[in-house]
Amino acid sequence: MADQGSTPPPPPNGRNPRLPAKNDGSWPRWTAWVVVAIVAVLIIAAQVAGSSPTNEIDYAELRELAAQGEIESFTYDNTNARIEGTKVTDGEPAGAEDTFISTGPSPLPEDDQAFFRDAGVKVEFETPQTNFFLGLIPLFLPFMIVIGFFWWIARRQQSQMGGIMSIGRSKAKTYSTERPGTTFNDVAGYGAVKQEITEVVDFLKHPQKFAEVGARIPKGVLLVGPPGTGKTLIARAVAGEAGVPFLSVTGSDFMEMFVGVGASRVRDLFQEARKMGKAIIFIDEIDSIGRKRGAGLGGGHDEREQTLNQMLAEMDGFEATEGIVMMAATNRPDILDPALLRPGRFDRQVVVPLPELEDRKEILGVHTKHKKMASDVDIHVIARGTPGMSGADLANLVNEAALYAVREGEKVVAARHFDQARDRVIMGVKRDSLVMNEAEREMTAYHEAGHALMAAVLPGYDPLHKVTIIPTGMALGVTMTLPEEDRHSMRKTQAENMIVMALGGRNAEDLVFDVVSSGAANDLQQATNIARRMVTEWGMSEKVGPMSFSSSGPVFLGDDMMGQKDFSDETGRVIDEETQRILLDMEDRCQRLMTEHRGALDLIARGLLEHETLSGDEVMRLVDISVNGPGSGGEMPGDSSNGSSPEADTPGAVLAPPQPPEA
């Protein structure tokens, strides 16, 4: 993380001084404790008031003590026949042991009254007045319990649903300058994206420069890119660079079970932003509410369309000079409503693509900064082997490598841990429990040897990284290549080499065992897909010519079912024939190469059966031995003169098989 500088101390109340204090109408949290304390005090007071530290005697004992002259006086309560009195103390002050309580008959009989008078006992009769507050306790206590129960239920509903009265309020989270901000220094790579979006930062920091020239900043900036490329992080970095409040909300937060709630929350969101003066409103996954209206299978949702209409109206309602900028992120721009993308709304689209080689190096540097790396870890090699991975994928890759290091009891993350993490992320966990019989294991070895041989002898193909027959994920074996650089376009020869390499396993089985197995199902699928794209998308068929028959855009929901073919049945037959011709020609080429290098195929298969995994360098040595003989300087895998095992020679890289670029 970059140094954020000195952060100003938070205000005493923990709020942003530029943000008005919210009054949501709810009671303070200490209210419930105050009510409980008051009720407890009243109950204790009632008990204390109704009792005294005296000795209780029965009425018969009272008569006996009175007859013996030991009772001085007592008071008779006419309401409950309670008797409280004192004993004879011979002139000394009466203590707690000289007092007593008793309960007599109600009312006190005349004979008993005469008896006590004759015994010299002073008898007083009283009718005490009831305590008003104590009398209210039994009346109001049930009501207080019921009210407290409903208050508790209301508080739970408010915490879960935002409260019945506040259901239309925005759920946006506000990030102000008092919190540690995210800046462009925290976003690794993406120099072009940051340069393009710097105008928004300059406008929020220095709006007078734009006002003097008469230029206006776009009201809305739409970040478009695959998942995991850091669109949300870039939006937060814009707010951190500009030093303005950042209102973050997801598109799903506007949707509710009640009709009209989404539109109400949109209004509240923009009102809150206007109170702040300058602010950035960021809506993540805007495609959840911004889908095309009336799009057949994907439309017809009244609540979503009302929310979208309200958002369009609010964006038209504020001027660009107000200092409010809307930012949104999506990975499906093809399904957004055209009204969102017109000038005056989201009129600027910033593409956040998958990171390039240099970007991946910077991203890996950020994620490995606080981890202990071994000396054999080369960030450049790892970045070369991760084409097509997003920033989130790279972060997960580094974490998986660290987990493998912990499992092995290591203190640092080594190159082999990244290699293991690559296999885990791309292909899945190694299935060590899977046991193959010798015949199946031998066929798998020749299958993978066929792939590895084609990758080694095809001119201009990506360098071979490693080949293994250890079952991993859904595959019984894997052959991987390491691209030297990112590929943005593909030549015809490269596409043909990919088909030959994909058919290498099937042709090796056919050449050695004179059989074909189902293990080549995925290889055939990849080869057929490349061949068909050569004919229908890339114009690499002389018979079809420079024509494209692919769909005009990404498929969304039922668009493909509702669409029609844009070519005739005769053209479809020609496409199938050309696809088949390319596959058969590449199969003939693969068979010729396989027959020519049969000795290398056997050496590679034997090495796989013995060691299960061979590095790319070891495969190249075996091919060299087959071509030039044992005296050419190459050595067999595991030879004692080499002094190293295949695993030790395996580069610490994270690799992915080359994929054809999207049209």
Task: Briefly characterize the structure.
By secondary structure, the protein is of the alpha/beta class. Helices cover 46% and strands 10% of the residues. The longest helix is centred in the first third of the chain and has 30 residues, at 132-161.
Structure description:
This protein is of the alpha/beta class and 663 residues long. The chain has 4 domains: 47-128, Signal recognition particle alu RNA binding heterodimer, srp9/1 (2-Layer Sandwich); 173-351, 3-Layer(aba) Sandwich (Rossmann fold), CATH 3.40.50.300; 366-426, Helicase, Ruva Protein, domain 3 (Orthogonal Bundle); 438-551 and 566-649, Up-down Bundle (Methane Monooxygenase Hydroxylase, Chain G, domain 1), CATH 1.20.58.760. Helix content is 46%, strand content 10%. The protein is built from 23 helices and 14 strands. The protein has helices at 31-49, 59-67, 110-118, 132-161, 191-205, 207-213, 231-242, 261-276, 302-317, 338-341, 357-367, 379-384, 391-407, 415-426, 438-457, 492-502, 504-513, 521-536, 559-562, 569-596, 598-611, 616-628, 646-649; strands at residues 55-56, 71-77, 82-87, 99-103, 122-126, 173-175, 220-224, 246-250, 279-284, 324-330, 348-351, 464-468, 478-481, 613-615. The longest helix is centred in the first third of the chain and has 30 residues, at 132-161. The chain is elongated.
